[in-house]
Amino acid sequence: MARGKKEQELVFGLDIGTRSIVGTVGYREGTAFHVVAQYIKEHETRAMLDGQIHDIPKVSATICQVKEELEKRIDRKLKTVCIAAAGRVLRTVTTNVVHTYTSEREVTEEDIYALETMGVEKAFEEFTAANDTDMQFYCVGYTAIRYYLNGYTIINLAGHKAKNIGVDLIATFLPDDVVDGLYKAVNGAGLQVANLTLEPIAAIQVAIPEKFRLLNLALVDVGAGTSDISITKEGTITAYGMIPVAGDSLTDLIVQQCLVEFDTAEYIKRTIATQEVVEYEDILGLPQRITREEVKNLLQPAIESMTKEVAECIRELNGEKPVSAVFVVGGGGVVAGYTETLAKELGLAKERVAIRGKEVMQNIQFENEGAQKDSMMVTPIGICLSYYEQNNNFIFVQFNEEQVKLYDNGKLMVVDAAIAAGFPNEDLFPKRGKSLVYTVDGKNKMQRGLPGEAAVITVNGKESDIHSKIVNGDKIVVTPSTAGEDGKVKLDKLSQLHEKVKIIVNGNEILLDKSVKVNGNNMLSSYEIQDNDVIEVIGYYTVEQIAQLADVILDETMTILVNDVPAKPDTKVYHDFSVSFVKNTTSSEAQTFEEYVQMSENEVNTAEADTVQMPEETIVEAKVEQTVSVVNEQKEEELPQNIQTQDDVTVVLVNKQPVVMRGKSEYIFVDVFDYIQFDLRESGGRNIVTLLNGRQAQYMETIKEGDIIDIYWEN
Fold first, then answer.
1. Of 381, 264, 272, which Cα lies nearest the Cα of 330?
2. One domain, residues 511 and 382
3. Which of 279, 327, 612, 630 is the 20 to 30 Å CA partner of 693?
4. What would the pLDDT profile of 123-169 be if each residue is shown by its tens digit?
5. Phi, psi at 8, each rounded to 5°
6. What span, in angstroms and rounded, lies between the C-alpha atoms of 620 and 606?
7. Residue 35 domain-assigned?
8. Chain-centre distance of CA 663, in angstroms?
9. Domain that holds residue 665
10. In 3-state terms, what secondary structure has residue 659?
């Protein structure tokens, strides 16, 4: 490296492949990227298969050798590295986000970054909701497909004035085991990840410049274990894909055919591209030779199978349409016959499927002697360039002594670490005590418990809260929140019991407390309500109860009137009802039934100033009652069937007026209309309101003694 570049900020990129690890160190100056050092080290064993790390310690050891060799060449220590993941079990989500400003303003680079971060977060939420596997996935890269300025598409938002900005974005996700294996291998070599991207994203940085992305092109990165695919169209990258078949599947065929170890088979595969005949030694120690034609014939069926899968993936990613051309990079793509076969599978001219290498590296300046400038270097250099395009690395923090990995969106907080660690959300916030649930007069009630104490949070020993910012290496300790007292309430706290029952007794107004039943049992007001209790507030008194309070003796000499209507001891008396107790001559003292009725009328008329004369229908009822009494005493005469007893009389309150119904042992709501004057033809377009004891009545439901009924036209 030139001494003048000693202090230049360098980017270290690692392409951790199935067969080898390629290390690249360089820096960007203007539009050019300067490569100052390169080093390739093959795995000594098959520590990786199909792009997946199988032996982390061995891969770490190889990474360490690459790092140390590059440090010697640049005379500088390397602490951070950019890496790329292969597309094994790759998933993508395309989403759109729009951000609106409070007023028109100029869009900055920070605004664009924030917008893209919103898109990544939304894509992650959508992906998590749709994830039908037990695997945890991480976002390993994203690409802005198109930007929007005030609803119109635009190439670059920076510098424009906008009321709102938006972006269509494609985010790529890989399983945790793929990402975690890469991080552990890098950490094992004493390095921290500065940026993680996807291999096809990295490759396209070099292989397809932006000016070519207006065309509908496909890029195929054929590695050893995977073939990663990306599609461009209308100036942007529109899709990513992967198939788990690549160069190693061809090498395995040579191993079987030539009876050699894997490394020897790799040598044969690479050498045959430049030589007509390759000489080698098999595992028995016997010298052997194979021609290019023999290798081509051996590999062709496998190449046809591989390219068929690649072609199908390209069509699927491109909306079941062929692309205009295909660029191929990576060591697996240089095998003789690969590009021609892929062109045939896609129905393209063979010239439209081409290897991309040195010719696409116009903006790459190689400062190291003997630099490799072929298709195998496209992805490694692209990994370095991705560092400048997006910063989407992960960080590690310690949460309650457990290591947690987080996608770094630049604004991580304690709450994000808590969610990633699976810490219960309710243990972060003050917990209320258990709520008390009960019913009062058929209505559900709830008394909430008291709130407890919030969680105690420290970050690196300092008191913090759930919104405190966190960075890589932070140590977070969260003591769970506590719960408060359970909900409690006594009967005397019910608002329904604060209201009195007003009753007029013989012209005098008295106020009585309401009584209460809990689960059918009478309870004192000091009772503490329990969970699921059924409470009934009794808003009435019986005539018998009122008589006891008024020291009135109920016997055959006492006439009882409720709202000026004859009543019995068990008749219910509600708020604003009147009760009259009238002492009268017994039936045995009357000479005739007519005299008894007359005597009763006289006593009622003189009882109190606010009482009224018994209606004629009541007098008739009294006559009937007396007749029944006489007949019952004789016992020898049969009771006429057209005579109704007092038990067949039901009294209800309709629109605050008592209504006496007789002739049936049981009544339903619609029967009331036979006893009141209410013309249903006078609706005038209004709805009729029918209430029974304050609730909506059902016309066919049974009504009983003392029910309160309201019937009127709705305004």
1. 381
2. no
3. 612
4. 888 888 887 777 777 777 777 888 999 999 888 898 999 999 999 98
5. -65, 140
6. 20
7. no
8. 63
9. 648-713
10. strand
Question: What's the number of domains the chain is made of?
Answer: 4
DSSP state of 432: B
249 contacts: CB under 8 Å, gap ≥ 6: 302, 306
**Does pLDDT of 359 surpass 50?**
yes
- Whether residues 271 and 241 share a domain: the answer is yes
- What is the enclosing helix (H) or strand (E) of 615? none
| CATH for 443 | 3.10.20
Do residues 497 and 513 touch, judged by C-beta distance below 8 A?
yes
Contact yes or no for 580/543 (Cβ under 8 A) = no
Whether residues 541 and 574 fall in one domain: yes
Co-location of 180 and 213 in the same domain: yes
∠ CA 387-41-271 to the nearest 5 degrees?
Answer: 115
- What is the full DSSP assignment across 526-572? TPBP-TT-EEEEE-EEEHHHHHHHTT---STTEEEEETTEE--TT-E
Tell me, yes or no, if the pTM score tops 0.85.
no
My answer on whether 638 and 652 are in the same domain is no
- pLDDT, one tens digit per residue, over 365-404 is 888 777 777 777 888 888 888 888 755 556 778 899 887 8
Q: Are strands 353-355 and 462-464 parallel, antiparallel or unpaired?
A: unpaired
Q: For 583-615, what is each residue's pLDDT tens digit?
A: 865 444 444 334 434 444 444 444 333 333 334
Handedness of CA 534, 538, 543, 549 (dihedral sign): positive
DSSP 283: T
The candidate with the shortest Cα–Cα distance to 312, out of 280, 279, 282, 346, is 346
Structure tokens at 345: 């599978």
Contact in structure between 219 and 232 (CB atoms under 8 Å): yes
Query: Is 250 found in the same domain as 189?
Result: yes
Task: Using the 3D structure, point to which of 445, 479, 513 is the last residue of a domain.
Answer: 479
Q: Would you tell me how many other CB atoms lie within 10 Å of the CB of residue 74?
A: 19
**Strand, helix or coil for residue 618:** helix
| Residue closest to 431 by CA, chosen among 483, 487, 479 | 483
Please tell me what DSSP assigns to residue 465.
-
SS3 101: strand
